[in-house]
Amino acid sequence: MKLGNATLDQLPQGISGPTYDRSVLTPGIVHIGLGNFHRGHQAWYLHRLMQDGLAHDWAIVGAGVRAGDEAQRNRLAAQDYLTTLIELDPAGRSAEVIGSMIDFVPVQEGNAPLIAQMADPAIRIVALTVTEGGYYIDPVTNGFDADHPDIQHDAANPDSPHTAFGAMIAALKQRRDAGTGPFTGLSCDNLQGNGAILRQTVVSLARMSDPALADWIDANCTFPNSMVDCIVPATGPKELDIVRMMGIDDAAPVTHENFRQWVIEDEFCAGRPDWDKVGATFSDNVHAYESMKIRILNGGHQVISNPGEILGVEFISGCMANPLIGPFFRKLATEEITPHVNPVPGMAPADYVDLIDRRFSNPEIVDTVRRVAFDGSSRHTGFLLPTLRDALNAGTPIDGLALAEALWARMCEGTREDGTIIAPNDPIWDSLNSAAKAAKTDPAAWLAQRDLYGDLAENATFVAAFSHWLNLIWSDGTEAALTAYLNG
């Protein structure tokens, strides 16, 4: 059956759909960056509320600021913005159709339709999943990158911005001038203090063209920190085959694991849905949840995906099944990361390592090494280097963390150990590739990337460990280096 409003009463047996009347839903949220993760996570929480007869005035309007987002808009519009969510678990698959999204803003140069939608007083939350590297921050200082060409354009052209943040500012200016009040900016990306970073980006960009507006935004808008968690692979031929086998013609299905977590600060200047009634957690200590997840899960993804790519392992579950990569994750996470992670209610760091081990090992989740290894320049700096700095300051072991950085450098050289080519996989791939090639004979050439490593390039302990591992990888191979670490 072709997925759409007209066929919801024809869903295959065992697949549930919306029990609420979608025709009466009204928008309350604009979500920018409407990919698989949002639909498998935040949109699902809202759908669950709607199933309980709640939050019918909080429906989602999707949005994007890249030309490629229009293709996603067209796919979803053709099926009335419905999505089939498929849970992949070793115990069995299940599926449901969610309907919490009701529209998608046309994607246009200058973002006029997006600005108009966010200026609508009915919109009380603007949420974002624009990737860790999408906030225009310096990876070393975490400060605002005012010199980026996109930022310079938006500062000079505030009424026709390129970025999501410029569009938010233009909409907030209209709301301030009309007296319709602010909205909440809700980051759902894997950044420590993501709400504070979103505030920094929006307010700093606004200050470049309109200081008074920047002050108004800073004083009136809220930007709660949040932690989001669910492994959601990209959709490809395998996922499309799965949904067809279930009897549904869905051009944009989402597969996900049997786990979700959402922890949010309760700071919403214009109201919010009662997400806590369907499993989300409101907490004043989001930082602890963020730190545990970012350092162990997101950092762990980088730990295993880089050697996986070098050795030609295709999927994350395959990395965990590898006799060296899986144990590498456990030893590194247990001995070098957990000492710098605080417990959260109901979960000790060591128990979280066990949980992540099981989740990464799920063979039903076809999560590619290439997807997970993408954008290492943002992910290593955000997920692994903060732990490395803490360990160096505390005098605790760093050998595994240094090995993880050496493996990243080896991967960025652009070839696997079997001689096949690793296609460019980072926004700054050219500079990474150049540094990685130079580091084959001079490991310091990799650490000289000050935009990534800052003063870590001067830390004798780290430099010695990194150089040892990279030299060993190039002389004896990745497996020899992993074996040496595990036996050390």
CA-based gyration radius? 23 Å
Domain tally: 2
* Distance between the ends: 57 Å
Can you tell me the overall shape? globular
Number of strands: 11
CATH superfamily of the largest domain: NAD(P)-binding Rossmann-like Domain
**Binned strand content:** 5-15%
Task: Please give the structural blueprint.
Blueprint: E1 27-32, H1 36-40, H2 42-51, E2 59-63, H3 69-77, E3 83-87, E4 94-98, E5 101-104, H4 112-119, E6 125-128, H5 149-156, H6 164-178, E7 184-187, H7 194-209, H8 211-220, E8 226-229, H9 237-245, E9 254-256, E10 261-264, E11 281-282, H10 286-310, H11 316-321, H12 325-337, H13 349-361, H14 369-373, H15 376-394, H16 399-411, H17 429-439, H18 444-447, H19 450-453, H20 460-476, H21 478-487
Parallel strand pairs: 1-2, 1-6, 2-5, 3-9, 6-7, 10-11
Antiparallel strand pairs: 3-4, 8-10
Helix pairs in contact: 4-6, 5-7, 6-7, 6-8, 7-8, 10-12, 10-13, 10-15, 10-16, 12-13, 15-16, 16-20, 16-21, 20-21
Pfam family, one: Mannitol_dh
Keywords: Oxidoreductase
GO molecular function, one term: oxidoreductase activity, acting on the CH-OH group of donors, NAD or NADP as acceptor
